[in-house]
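FAQ: What does the model actually see?

It sees only this:
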Amino acid sequence: MKKALFPTLVLSALLTACATNETAQSTASAEQSAAAKDSDSALMQAVLMCDDDAIRSLIEGGAEVNAVGKNGDTALMNAAPICSTDAVRLLIEKGAQVNTSAENGETALMFAAMAGRSDTARILIDTGASVNAATKDGITALMFAAMGGHASTASLLIEKGADVNATATQGRTALGFAQARKHAEVVQILRAAGAK
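And it is asked to produce this:
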């Protein structure tokens, strides 16, 4: 009976060791995942504070530059309207995707256009951002620039091939948005580019 008990005890000990090892691996994996999320969250916070040094440090420490936030936003989308062009360039150099879109379809270029950030818009376009991408409602970067009255950004987008007659789902165009908000300079730029 003692001989029969020995293999059972060995098997039991092996099963316990395997289960303990799997639990340890699972715990380590969960801890690594949590650490990565914390790093990604810290990157988003650094971007929202426009802290170039922290952004660089976090990316070099392994933060995922294309991590997606609650609304489908990325660090690049958050940086585009508010941070330095150096921060935007750094994110792109480290692999940030310029055409990723948030839940409603907004891209980093659209966020730059909303804020009238022509310098950032140029960087994004020069690194492959689509000037004619549209949100789920059909709103383009040019329409966002027109809404905000950002003449230099509208001019840049037109120069880079934005469709001046693109129509959003409610039938509005960049010209319509500019006229509704009485942005005369943008209206003039759009008309000169052939907007109807």
